[in-house]
Amino acid sequence: MRYKESVDKLSAFYQATSKKLFYYLMRLTGDYDLSGDIMQESFTQLLKHYGPEAQNVSLLYTIARNAFLDHVRKNRRNTELEEDDRRDPSADSEKRLMVRQEYRKVLTAMHRLETDEREILAMVADGDLSYHEIGRITGVSEGNVRVKVHRARLKLKKFLQQEEDI
Question: What's the predicted TM-score (pTM) here?
């Protein structure tokens, strides 16, 4: 009975956090498959090192962030956005195309930001973490997080405006 309760709790935690963690990783990496891999690795590491009772969102994001940084260190190259034509064939609708193009513009602009700016902005965009928690994850003060978020938003806005002007 105890095992089943642990599995149920872990499953509920996964259901509650996986989608937002995945979106955070997508903003960081711009790569669907890599984001999924890092997300799964993060949950695996959380379970392996902290057990099924560890249901700490901040800790999970810290693990995911570190996995992303490990990946960046190993590859030392920028991830390029690729067109993925293997998806739903009905994705030809004009609205989906426009949404996809806007999404790609934002991701491209985010990848022009410095890694730490992109990372903090991605965490804020999810809305699950407070500035204090983001500061603990990234190792900077809450006030510094606020400043970095503000500056990153201004840069992102500038990059998006530059792209519109082209």
Answer: 0.59
**Mean pLDDT for the stretch of residues 36-41:** 93
Pair (96, 146) in one structural domain = yes
Alpha-carbon span 90 to 12, nearest angstrom:
32
Q: What is the pLDDT of residues 4-15, one digit of tens each?
A: 777 788 888 889
Rounded to an integer, what distance in angstroms lies between the CA atom of residue 163 and that of residue 140? Answer: 31
Count CB atoms within 10 A of the CB of residue 135: 19
Average pLDDT score over residue span 39-56: 87
Residue with tokens 């990059």: 159
Please list, residue by residue across 49-71, b when 16 or more beta carbons sit within 10 angstroms of its beta carbon and e when fewer do. eeebeebebebbbbbbbebbeeb
Domain span holding position 166: 92-166
What are φ and ψ of residue 2, in 5° steps? -60, -40
